[in-house]
Design goal:
Strand 9, helix 8 and strand 10 form a beta-alpha-beta unit. The radius of gyration is 22 Å and the shape is globular. By secondary structure, the protein is α/β, with parallel strands linked by helices. 46% of the residues lie in helices and 14% in strands. The protein has two domains: 201 residues, Glycogen Phosphorylase B (Rossmann fold), CATH 3.40.50.2000; 189 residues, Glycogen Phosphorylase B (Rossmann fold, 3-Layer(aba) Sandwich), CATH 3.40.50. Strands 3-2-1-4-5-6-7 form a seven-stranded parallel β-sheet, with helices on both faces.
Length: 401
């Protein structure tokens, strides 16, 4: 019977809440990896004098297809939560209000089940609209909450969770007007998104020529239509820059809207073939560590995950922040790398011709300037190790006693 098993002899359970984009799930995966390593090595929380119990990790994500795409191939335990993002538009606000109670109740059920079958229970939130109802449920259930903030400008969910968090961490410097003290840690990157092989080995693993440079283009898990259309325009106008420089391309189009990604793939493949530029084009990449390891330069959105991965891999990057965020937090995310001299940040003009006029020269400069890329890489490596996941995992485990 569960009731007769001492809590100290049952494995602890860590519930990771974050979803809606891969950028809110991957940091939780990274911390879970480190927590499991701590317990497997005997450095987990004390359990009656023994430290050998393995940790259980559950991921509470959104019902969006992209969340399934991230977690299912990894075989992790996950629960979709019927949560909705908060928006000021009357329709979005109504959906949020209607969904809130059900989302909190569903989260409480997850926590209650974990309490019944596990020992210690701890909630870790990584942002996004899933985080808020889970944090509220943890508050009601009297379960400790660790907050991880990933963006330089904290979002609405993190501002809500901050008041309920037992401890809080941020991977980028932030000004917190509500007075919550957050500990600054290095970026959080999961193991399979870090570079674990030589550049030549990564290129070979990606099916590329190890002697030729690689440009990586990514708009994140959801993709970026304006980046895809910019690349089409750049290849049409300046394909010789890629071709004469011997460049190869890894291009993630993103999930986007139904039917659109197949069209992007067809158009981009045709453009690269026409310019005689070897390219791998896919909707979603599960091996980002290999891609970043192969890349000699990158064009990317500036989500917290992309910034962390560019930092970790020391890849010279042109960041093109998502233009529709009112707080422009992606621009702020890139600032650390830009100020260090390891990246460039250019606003998205949305239209291909306009982006070609602003982004085009910067990309041409990066592609043709080997010395520039070398200097940028050196400055990125000088930022230090990317070990935020290990630090946070240790703090969470230490907090259990």
């Amino acid at each position: 019977m569960i009731g007769t098993t001492p809590m100290t002899q049952r494995p602890p359970c860590y519930i990771f809440a974050g979803g809606g984009t891969g950028g809110h799930i991957y940091p939780g995966l990274a911390i879970a990896e480190q927590i499991r390593l701590l317990y497997a090595s005997g450095h987990g929380a004390s359990t009656g004098g023994q430290r050998s119990l393995l940790a259980r990790c559950i991921f509470v994500v959104s019902t969006r297809a992209v969340d399934r795409t991230v977690v299912e191939p990894l075989g992790v335990e996950y629960v979709p939560l019927p949560a909705q993002p908060l928006g000021l538009h009357p329709r979005r606000l109504a959906k949020f209000v209607v969904s809130w109670g059900g989302a909190v109740r569903a989260a409480r059920e997850v926590i209650q089940q974990a309490k019944a079958t596990n020992g210690l229970v701890h909630v870790v939130t990584t942002g996004g609209f899933v985080a808020a109802p889970v944090a509220q449920a943890a508050h009601v259930e009297r379960v400790p909450v660790t907050l991880l903030n990933l963006d330089a400008v904290p979002g609405k969910a993190n501002r809500f969770v901050a008041w309920r968090a037992t401890q809080a961490f941020t991977t980028l410097p932030v000004t917190v007007p509500w007075g919550k003290a957050w500990k600054l840690v290095p970026p959080v990157v999961r193991a399979d998104a870090t570079v674990q092989h030589s550049k030549a080995e990564c290129k070979i693993a990606c099916g590329l020529d190890p002697t030729r440079p690689v440009l990586m283009v990514t708009g994140g898990s959801l993709g970026a239509g304006s980046l895809n259309s910019f690349v089409l325009a750049f290849v049409a106008a300046h394909g010789e820059v890629l071709r004469d420089g011997g460049w190869q391309v890894l291009h993630q189009t993103g999930s986007g809207s139904a039917g659109q990604q197949e069209a992007w793939g067809d158009q981009l493949n045709a453009a690269y073939r026409g310019a005689r530029v070897p390219a791998t084009v896919c909707e979603y990449c599960q091996t980002m560590g290999l891609w970043w390891g192969a890349a000699d330069a990158a064009v990317s959105r500036a989500g917290a995950g992309a910034v962390a991965e560019a930092w970790a891999s020391a890849t010279p990057t042109i960041f093109v922040p998502y233009p529709y965020h009112k707080d422009q937090h992606q621009r702020a995310n890139a600032r650390v790398l830009v100020d260090a001299g390891g990246a460039v940040c250019i606003d998205d003009q949305l239209q291909p011709a306009a982006n070609l006029a602003t982004l085009g020269p910067e990309l041409g400069r990066l592609l043709t300037g080997e010395a520039i890329r070398t200097t940028m890489g050196v400055r990125l490596r000088a930022l230090g190790p990317v070990d935020g996941a290990a630090r946070i995992a240790q703090a969470i485990v230490n907090a259990q006693g």
